[in-house]
């Protein structure tokens, strides 16, 4: 009989394959004195050769999947293994102290790691400590005869099981072999969830102890539609879910027919379905999905993929590329949202007890205006090449918005005076992600050109629950009546002033939230590009006036997240 593991449905689809556990083995060992020095020298040499050969294969795979720049980190690892000073010291410990190879390796590499970590005035050298740690782990695995998991070496169909997934984990994988992700940690807004949707790979996250519930080679069905996995399923279960997977594939083929269609409800109400992007390279996926706009361009990549603050020209080139790629469709660009969980090694921020509530986003921009002005100039220059809308993140007070707008107006005036061509009108908006701004939306609506509701943070702040903390993940409640009231307040306030209300959080692509948002009259829905056609298809089947009544019932009669979800399910099935 199969074992069922329950988690959070994070990326639609069904994957059926063998388990690949992306979990480090136990590399503990005992220190001991040896008698055969030559045998121990041979062991360390063999382990280093094996590690080098392995890294060469990984480097080649990374270059194919990610490009030469990303693969370069493995050159550094190979170079460490060839360092004559380190090799000499390890062999000396084995020869002179008669210690086992594992202990000699640890003793010498710990010394190097300490030296690098103490170079606090040299960021580059500090980062070499992590490289030495990685290399040490690899050599140790060969000495102990234990395999390190390596996503770059996956070459057959698998469902990847991990405690959590890092960007580098997912970036190394060959997506044609990865049929699903199952993680212990995470919620719908975690990196692994967002990445799985971008890669169009089914995923279930926040499954607790999934990594201890399965073994490498187990057969597994991953249901990313309903949020569970079946370990070692029966033949009957495999047949049932293979049929469901085939049906889902047929649905997706039908959605493709809507690529060039308008996003219209059954009763003729037009909405805008847009895509969220993180880099200029993501634009093609948005275009391919038939997105009617880019509803959120996260500009952090320009800062995070650099060893210094990006120049005005570098930013201008990126923004211009995105705008031109969208062929006249609107592009909403969020100004730098650094802080919280996003740090720059070259821009030290103060240590904070609560970084998500601290010095981040617009607060840094208004304090470090030289950074803000550089970005705004690049954005204003790029506006000449298409429709750019600029929005400011983490706005809590009207004065913050006014101050940001003042800086924008000053930089725009300077460029115009210098004869630089710019758009006649650039719309300025704000992210609504702080409850105070949602409550005060009627006043903000008099100041802004548009709202974009960032539900990932709005939910986190409304329920005082860190969205990355698995212990409070139950408080990620997108259908809770309290949250729905806040969202409706923002939409109503925007419409009273003749302004647009958009949403760029993950909730905008949620199949249970979309009907409610349509009933509230939300104008624009921005989501992972892979969700665009599914949402457009869903909209075709819904009558907005009917769902306006459901919204009223949800916010006046329901008291819990679960009650609202049940109400939506009942009406969807009717």
* CATH-derived topology of the largest domain: TIM Barrel
Number of helices: 23
CATH homologous superfamily placement of the largest domain: Phosphoenolpyruvate-binding domains
- Spatial order of strands in the largest sheet: 1-8-7-3-4-5-6-2
> Regions with pLDDT < 50 over 5+ consecutive residues?
none
Shape descriptor reads globular
What value does the average pLDDT take?
A: 92
CATH 2nd-level architecture of the largest domain: Alpha-Beta Barrel
Radius of gyration: 26 Å
**Beta strand count:** 17
User: What structural class results from the helix and strand content?
Assistant: alpha/beta
The domain count comes to 3
Give the percentage of residues in beta strands: 5-15%
Fraction of residues in helix: 40-55%
The main pleated sheet reads as: 8 strands, mixed
Give an overview of the whole structure.
The chain has 574 residues and is α/β, with parallel strands linked by helices. The chain is built from 23 helices and 17 strands. It has three domains: 3-23 and 150-253, Glucose Oxidase, domain 1 (3-Layer(bba) Sandwich); 37-143, Orthogonal Bundle (Enzyme I, Chain A, domain 2); 269-573, Alpha-Beta Barrel (TIM Barrel). Helix 4 (101-117) packs antiparallel against helix 5 and helix 19 crosses helix 22. The model has no long low-confidence stretch (mean pLDDT 92).
């Amino acid at each position: 009989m199969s074992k069922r593991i329950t988690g959070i449905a994070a990326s639609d689809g069904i994957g059926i394959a063998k388990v690949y556990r992306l979990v480090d083995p136990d590399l503990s060992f005992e220190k001991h004195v040896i008698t055969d020095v030559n045998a121990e020298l041979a062991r360390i040499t063999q382990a280093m050769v094996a590690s080098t050969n392995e890294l060469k294969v990984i480097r080649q795979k990374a270059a194919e999947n990610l490009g030469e720049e990303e693969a370069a980190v493995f050159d550094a690892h190979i170079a460490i293994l060839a360092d004559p000073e380190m090799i000499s010291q390890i062999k000396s410990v084995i020869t002179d102290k008669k210690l086992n190879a594992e202990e000699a390796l640890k003793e010498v590499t710990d010394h190097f790691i300490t030296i690098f970590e103490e170079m606090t005035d040299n960021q580059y050298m500090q980062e070499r400590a992590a490289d030495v740690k990685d290399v040490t782990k690899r050599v140790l695995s060969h000495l102990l005869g234990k395999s390190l998991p390596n996503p770059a070496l996956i070459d057959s169909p698998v469902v990847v099981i991990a405690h959590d997934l890092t960007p580098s984990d997912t970036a190394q994988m060959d997506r044609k072999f990865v049929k699903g992700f199952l993680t212990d940690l995470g919620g719908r807004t975690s990196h692994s969830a967002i990445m799985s949707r971008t890669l169009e790979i089914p995923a279930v996250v926040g499954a607790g102890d999934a990594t201890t519930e399965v073994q490498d080679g187990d057969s597994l069905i991953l249901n990313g539609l309903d949020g569970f996995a079946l370990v070692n399923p029966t033949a009957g279960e495999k047949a049932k879910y293979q049929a469901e997977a085939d049906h889902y594939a047929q649905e997706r083929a039908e959605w493709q027919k809507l690529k060039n269609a308008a996003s219209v409800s059954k009763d003729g109400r037009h909405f805008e379905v847009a895509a969220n992007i993180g880099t200029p390279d993501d634009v093609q996926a948005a275009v391919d999905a038939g997105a009617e706009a880019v509803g959120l361009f996260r500009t952090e990549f320009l800062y995070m993929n650099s060893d210094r603050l990006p120049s005005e020209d570098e930013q201008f080139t990126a923004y211009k590329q995105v705008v031109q790629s969208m062929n006249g469709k609107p592009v909403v660009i969020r100004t730098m949202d650094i802080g919280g969980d996003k740090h720059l090694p070259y821009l030290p921020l103060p240590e904070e007890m609560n970084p998500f509530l601290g010095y981040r986003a617009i607060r840094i921009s208004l304090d470090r205006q030289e950074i803000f002005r550089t970005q705004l100039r690049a954005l204003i220059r790029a506006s000449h090449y298409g429709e750019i809308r600029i929005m400011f993140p983490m706005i809590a007070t009207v004065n913050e918005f006014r101050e940001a707008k003042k800086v924008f107006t000053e930089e725009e005036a300077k460029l115009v005076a210098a004869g630089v061509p710019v758009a006649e009108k650039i719309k300025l908006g704000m992210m609504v992600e702080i409850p105070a701004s949602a409550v005060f939306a009627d006043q903000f609506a008099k100041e802004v050109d548009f709202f974009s509701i960032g539900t990932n943070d709005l939910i986190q702040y409304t329920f005082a629950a860190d969205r990355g903390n698995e212990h409070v993940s139950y408080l990620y409640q997108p259908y809770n009546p309290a949250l729905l009231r806040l969202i409706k307040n923002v939409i109503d306030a925007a419409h009273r002033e003749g302004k647009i209300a958009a949403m760029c959080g993950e909730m905008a692509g949620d199949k249970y939230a979309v009907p409610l948002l349509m009933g509230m009259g939300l104008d624009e829905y921005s989501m992972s590009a892979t969700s665009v056609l599914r949402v457009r298809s869903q909209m075709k089947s819904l009558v907005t006036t009917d769902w306006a009544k459901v919204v009223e019932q949800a916010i006046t009669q329901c008291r819990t997240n679960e009650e609202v979800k049940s109400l939506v399910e009942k009406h969807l099935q009717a």
